[in-house]
Amino acid sequence: MTVESTKNAQPIVDFDSPKIHRYNRIRHFKDKFATVGIAVGGVGVIAAILLIFLYLLYEVVPLFQSADVEPLASYTVPGEDAKTLYMAVEEQNEIGLRVTDQGDLIFFDVADGGVRKTFNLPIPAGETVTSLSVGSEASGIMALGLSGGGVLIAKHDYRISYPDDKRVIDPRVVYPYGEDIISLSDGGAVDAIAIRSSEEKLTLIGHVNNQLIGRALIKEEDFLTEEVTLVPEDLVFPPLVETGDEKLGKVHLDIDQRFIVVQVGNQRLDVINLRAETVQTIHSESRIDSAKFLLGGISLLVAYDNGTIGQWFMVRGEEGSPQLTEIRSFETEYKGPIVKLAIEQRRKGFASVTGDGHIELFHSTAHRNVFDGKLIEGAQPNAVAMSPRANRLLVEASDNQIHVFEITNNHPEISWSSLWSKVWYESYDEPRYVWQSSSSSNDFEPKMSLMPLSFGTLKAAFYAMLLGAPLAICGAIYTAYFMTPVMRRKIKPLIELMEALPTVILGFLAGLWLAPFMENNLAAIFTILLVMPFAILGFAYLMSRLPVALQNRINEGWHGFILIPVVILVGAACMGGSPWIESAFFDGSMRTWISNDLGIPFDQRNALVVGVAMGFAVIPTIFSIAEDAIFSVPKHLSYGSLALGATPWQTMLGVVLPTASPGIFSGLMIGLGRAVGETMIVLMATGNTPIMDANIFEGMRTLSANLAVEVPEAEVDSTHYRVLFLAAFVLFIFTFVVNTAAEIVRQRLRKKYGSL
Questions:
Q1: Smallest Cα–Cα separation from 324: which of 300, 350, 290?
Q2: Minimal CA–CA distance to 270: which of 289, 253, 283?
Q3: Residue 88's closest CA among 20, 165, 157?
Q4: How far is it, in rounded angstroms, from Cα 606 to Cα 311?
Q5: CB within 8 A of 610, min separation 6: which ones?
Q6: Are residues 401 and 485 in the same domain?
Q7: What pLDDT, on the 0 to 100 scale, is given for residue 598?
Q8: Region for residue 184 given its phi and psi (left: phi exceeds 0; alpha: psi -120 to 50; beta: otherwise)
Q9: Residues 99, 89: Cα–Cα separation, whole Å
Q10: Contact 199, 219 (CB under 8 A)
Q11: How many CB atoms lie within 10 A of CB 317?
């Protein structure tokens, strides 16, 4: 073989050798392993997101479930055959109470009606109980009006002991103000009575012979013996509007012992203001069948013969004086007279019972009907009692039977309107969005509107993006397109390293250092924001006017570096001139000028602080993604544009930015998601006040910060606990919708500019 033929000979490759087969098998295995691994990872991510969604849904769905009422027992009314004036059930649902017009207190087993104990009240011989009122269901204090014009105050109480580890409940009757009869009138039966007790006094209001009578008993405590004595004091009422032949009906006294509501006839309510000595008269188009105060003694429920129930409480009128105002009404399924109302003792809920045995459950704040059904057949209810935990309902019917029902009503406080609409809460002058999940009082009305939290989330994200997005995108444009490669290799990692800074550190610095610093240097901050752009543009203009030889001495891509001294000098000048600016324009203090002269509320930890701190946190995310997108634009596109005569800025705006727009948009959306879900910065730098105000000088509370604050304190499976999960669900849905919309927009941008 010649040398020339050896050079031209082609190498012989045996594709059927064992080595090639082994290599192909290994490569095939790697391909399959990578395919399966990527598929499993992708499916795992989707499954994890789906499981989070399902778990949140599992915790949230019970909030919107209706109540359930099931009959438990029916038995003959325990005790003597007498008219029942009042019924009650103790905490454990074991013992019920029946009070008769003969002055008997009969304690019986709720399960079977067996009589446990009977107490005879110490009322004068020959007298009967003509009226009865309860100060509050939880207190157990009763005022019993007598046929002789007197009033006896008694309290049903229960002692619990555990002999041999077995619970034993012992019912008893106590007389907190003694067994003596309190005289309300010298003659005539007390036809109606109302009682309220506070630490300072006890007030009794009633009417005898169609005349309103009241007495206040001032409590005086002996300093040495701590014995309480009652000093009687007669109350003087302003004259009522002419009643004519109409008789006075039920009397109601509010929790502050300031307002008396008297039913006059069948279609009229008179409201007496004891302090202002004024009378407000309210006429109704329908007959008033029943009325009771809700838990807390602020709202009065008025039931009408057309099947509606109105909730009324005091609201300041146009003249500044409080007026009893109907806030909302509840429509029952049964359009007929409502004979009884039963009030829950721990929630703003109540039950209505109609003459034909139709029972409905409502919650006042949520404006929600959670149950309706006809549970009693062929008899009219005479008395109704609801247990303290609102899980038992006792109804005494005209067939001499007591019907016991089990109630499952875990979360009546929540409805669409209570979460997302304005609600008129008790003691408020108008409907508002309010989040206040807890209180020191058992009479608290839950205020769980998610609107302030959602608004706070968007407000914090808006101000963070307002500061962070322009800086991040402009920085990405300059770094990727104009900056010299040597400088880019140092700047880009440095900015990306900022993302590793824990947000708790940023929140700590923002709350303890940045917030007071910005408050004390408010004029300097705004001066920098106004002056800095013009200073940079002015410096750039001066640079363009330098001799060409001097300009050429500055290497291409290093212009941003020489701006650093300009930024430092302008910032220092603004900080140094801040006292003179405040003295010249703001009477020495811009902070005081904003609050006093402009009337704008100012909190130290406000949206401006959050915008700076959280903007600093989202800049690295947006910058990194946008910079990579711009830098990845093929160079031949830029070179072609420049070759056709376009300037670098024209090339950037017309070629590079459109091509990189999908990546830039992705960076913005990821930054927005980071701002929406941020917790520690807004938790430590906003003041956590759940208010709805776009004012940049006031704080806010976000959904994520609210979860961090309240989840550890919430009782598991409580309404508060599940509403917090609902807030997390709202945050999840918001993020999902934004990311989905962002992906759709990104794909369209990629399709539009992908052909470049």
A1: 300
A2: 283
A3: 157
A4: 38
A5: 460, 463, 464, 510, 681, 682, 685, 686, 699, 700
A6: no
A7: 87
A8: alpha
A9: 12
A10: yes
A11: 13
Residue-wise pLDDT for 609-650, tens only, equals: 999 999 989 999 999 999 998 988 888 888 888 888 888 888
Residue 709 burial (CB count, 10 A): 15
Q: Where are the beta strands (DSSP E) in 32-92?
A: 68-76, 84-89
Q: Which residues contact 382 (CB under 8 A, 6 or more apart)?
A: 84, 396, 397, 398
pLDDT single digits (tens) 427-451: 898 999 999 887 656 667 889 999 9
Distance between CA atoms of residues 355 and 340, nearest Å: 8
Strands 129-134 and 115-120: unpaired
Q: How far apart are CA 107 and CA 119, in angstroms?
A: 8
Torsion of CA 581, 582, 583, 588, to 10 degrees: -170
- Pick the closest to residue 233 from 218, 253, 255 (CA basis): 218
Residue count of the chain, please give it: 756
d(CA 506, CA 480) in angstroms, rounded, equals: 27
Query: Dmax of the chain from CA atoms?
Result: 147
At 336, which CATH number? Answer: 2.130.10.10
Q: Which of 442, 460, 487 is nearest to 691 (CA)?
A: 460
Q: Helix (H, G, I), strand (E, B), or coil: what is residue 219? A: strand
Task: Report CA-CA distances (Å) from 378 to 305, 356, 357, 366, 382.
Answer: 20, 7, 8, 33, 13
In a domain, 105, yes or no: yes
Query: Structure pTM?
Result: 0.86
Single out the residue in 409, 430, 447 at which a domain terminates: 409
Burial of 308 (0-12, 13-18, 19+ CB in 10 A): middle
Helix (DSSP H) and strand (DSSP E) numbers for the chain? 18, 31
Beta strands in 147-267 (DSSP E): 150-161, 168-174, 182-183, 190-197, 201-208, 211-221, 228-234, 248-253, 259-264
Helix (H, G, I), strand (E, B) or coil at 751: helix
| 480 and 393 together in one domain | no
Answer yes or no: do 383 and 470 share one domain.
Answer: no
The reply to whether 492 and 582 lie within a common domain is yes
Structure confidence at residue 14 (pLDDT):
64
Mean pLDDT (the chain, rounded): 87
How many domains is the chain built from?
2
Q: What is the DSSP letter of 203?
A: E
Structural domain boundaries enclosing 604: 465-704
Bridge partners (DSSP) listed for residue 153: 143
